[in-house]
Specification:
The complex is a heterodimer of chains A (about 425) and B (about 180). Chain A is mostly helical and about 425 residues long. Chain A has 22 helices and no strands. The chains are: A mainly alpha (about 425), B mainly alpha (about 180).
Chain lengths: ~425, ~180
């Protein structure tokens, strides 16, 4: 009875807007009390944050992303992709997909993409006479595209959480960076092809202009090395993920503040504060969820869950299908960071029992989360786009349906074709 | 009197932002310096060269203390960021329901949600204090010359301030700046 009461209380507090870290900590605290374990365990587990060598990648990439989005880098990215790809049939749609993916990979899917990139592309799409509904759907959907590409923070966070579980085979951030490439490209490709079919007939969006292309390349000369650091560095094996983060953060800091001077020195403290607020919010839920994971594993919850599931589901494909449905709802309700820290410690052991590779699971997890961002009725990007483009959420929901179906098909392909994720890792 | 208090509050805000920015910058610079030092360390004959050796001489100063220091710094930056996030109502929550509330309903929701957060933060502060006390007794070190519990102090102090801050946020409505 009292357990039921507590559950109701927690749900009510969550609905009233209580911070998630407090809810997680409260559950862990109560469970520890019930098991008559000292609550100091919560602090011991929380302090393990200071023992994770890769964790530093999160603040460093987050800072780099904030600095980039405050500079004029979004405009240059859009100009460059327009100049290079705008001449194709459906060029602007492809530009939108690509620019959003690159930007989200660097800044995380925090809705910044819709505001910073979408706001630039929406008028361009309209000008090129794309159907209004298509344009709205494309921008809303693309806001979370790129989650699977390095150096996206959710990808790193999944790696960190999964590493704590000491899985066999192990999960490394570098492997995740590699595993995300082909599934990510699949999504980009599918949306680009759809964009081509929806483009106004017999019309190129922008004329090919070699001088503009060169000038756009020159304009972006300081940003162009960034993908090289991250992709070349990590994919080429020169850097570990945390080293690539340090190099990227320093480089972005020097370029935006000292070379380009698009961020005034006086504005820097406020901006760094903005970035560390997100870092603090993530670290807090990560820290308390380490405590909750300790409690759950101590109580043998993953084993019990597996036993319960395996009596109902005997093969891994059915399990994966149900996992997709579950993750879709989860991604709609929870932001990607909370979803990772809460669910990954429980899901990874169960998935391992079904013989699913933890790196593959990570890609499936994030691919679902990406769709969850704009899944009606409460996907966050629907609200951000509605606010930014002054359009009712219902219109955006209808506009997103074809994109939802296309990406859902991609997710199913990613789920049932593990080698797509695992082909690039040894 | 009120304006003096407001000035003090503004000063404290600036101090907090300043310290946070300073720690964040240290994190970036030291992490990058460590990589450079590692490269130099791999081909130490550079240090023997006239100009380059002088330019890179500082890398000798990057020792085994940097790794644990950086890892502790991540935690410090995170805790200070969490404090800042509490002030701006930016902690991760399910805000679907609260978004639609206004007036006294919003006040009640905030009082419950942030009052609860304050209580939990206080419990976490107490638990962290237990960790600091344990570590002081065991006497482990973060790196040479610095006891582990110094780096852990950020937890009880941070959570205690967090509790106070949430308690304050429970009583006020969001300001225009944070609502947008």
């Amino acid at each position: 009875m009292s357990v039921l009461l507590l559950i109701v209380l927690i749900v009510v507090l969550a609905a009233l807007g209580a911070p998630l870290f407090a809810l997680i900590a409260a559950i862990a605290y109560l469970a520890l009390r019930a098991a008559e374990v000292e609550s100091t365990v919560l602090a011991v587990e929380f302090f393990r944050l200071a023992e994770m060598p890769v964790l530093i990648a999160i603040p460093l990439f987050t800072m780099a992303g904030y600095l980039l989005s405050e500079s004029k880098a979004p405009q240059r990215l859009v100009r460059l992709t327009e100049a290079l790809l705008g001449w194709m049939h459906g060029g602007l749609a492809i530009v939108s997909v690509l620019a959003c993916a690159v930007f989200t990979a660097f800044t995380g899917a925090s809705g910044v993409t819709i505001v910073a990139i979408g706001a630039l592309l929406y008028p361009a799409l309209k000008h090129a006479r794309y159907p209004e509904r298509f344009s709205l759907g494309l921008i809303t959907t693309s806001g979370s595209l790129g989650l699977l590409f390095a150096p996206s923070v959710p990808l790193i966070l999944y790696g960190i959480v999964a590493q704590q579980l000491g899985t066999d085979p192990p999960v490394s951030i570098d492997d995740l960076f590699l595993a995300g490439i082909l599934p990510g490209l699949l999504m980009l490709g599918a949306l680009s092809i759809y964009g081509m079919t929806q483009a106004p007939p017999k019309q190129h969006d922008l004329p090919w202009n070699p001088r503009e292309a060169l000038s756009a390349l020159w304009d972006a000369r300081w940003e162009l090395p960034l993908p090289v650091f991250v992709l070349g560095g990590v994919y080429g094996g020169f850097f570990a993920a945390s080293e690539a983060a340090a190099v990227t953060a320093l480089y972005v800091l020097v370029v935006t503040v000292l070379v380009r001077r698009e961020i005034a020195l006086a504005a820097l403290p406020r901006l760094l504060r903005e970035a560390t607020m997100l870092v603090g919010a993530i670290l807090l839920i990560l820290g308390v969820s380490l405590g909750l994971t300790y409690v759950l594993i101590d109580a043998g919850v993953p084993e019990q869950l597996f036993q319960w599931i395996s009596t109902h589901i005997d093969n891994k494909w059915t399990f994966l299908l149900l996992l997709n449905l579950f993750l879709l709802v989860l991604g709609m309700l929870l932001d990607v960071f909370s979803a990772i820290v809460i669910m990954v410690p429980i899901l990874v052991p169960v998935a391992l029992s079904y013989g699913i590779h933890p790196v593959h699971l990570g890609i499936v997890f994030l691919a679902n989360m990406q769709i969850g961002y704009f899944t009606p009725p409460v996907g966050m990007n629907l609200f951000i786009a509605s606010y930014r483009f002054n359009t009712p959420v219902t219109t955006l929901t209808r506009a997103s349906v074809p994109f939802f179906l296309i990406l859902m098909a991609c997710v199913l392909l990613i789920t049932y074709w593990p080698s797509l994720s695992l082909a690039l890792i040894d | 009197m009120k304006s003096v208090l407001a000035a003090i509050a503004r000063g404290l805000d600036r101090l907090e932002t300043g310290v946070l920015a300073l720690l964040a910058l240290t994190l970036v610079l030291l992490a990058a310096a460590q990589i450079l030092a590692r490269w130099v360390g791999q081909s130490p004959d550079w240090l023997g060269w006239p100009v380059i050796g002088w330019l890179l001489g500082w890398t000798r100063w990057i020792g085994p203390w940097v790794d644990p220091f950086l890892r502790a710094l991540v935690l410090w930056v995170g805790m200070l960021g969490a404090l800042a996030a509490a002030r701006d109502d930016r902690h991760i929550n399910l805000d679907v329901l609260q978004r639609g509330l206004q007036g006294w309903k919003l006040r009640v929701a905030r009082a419950a949600a942030y009052g609860f957060a304050a209580l939990v933060s206080a419990l976490l502060a107490q638990a962290s204090w237990g960790l600091v006390a344990l570590e002081r007794e065991s006497g482990t070190v973060l790196f040479e010359g610095v006891p582990m519990w110094w780096s852990q102090l950020v937890l009880p102090v941070g959570f205690a301030i967090l509790a106070l801050r949430f308690a304050l946020r429970a009583l006020v409505l969001p300001t225009q700046a944070t609502a947008s």
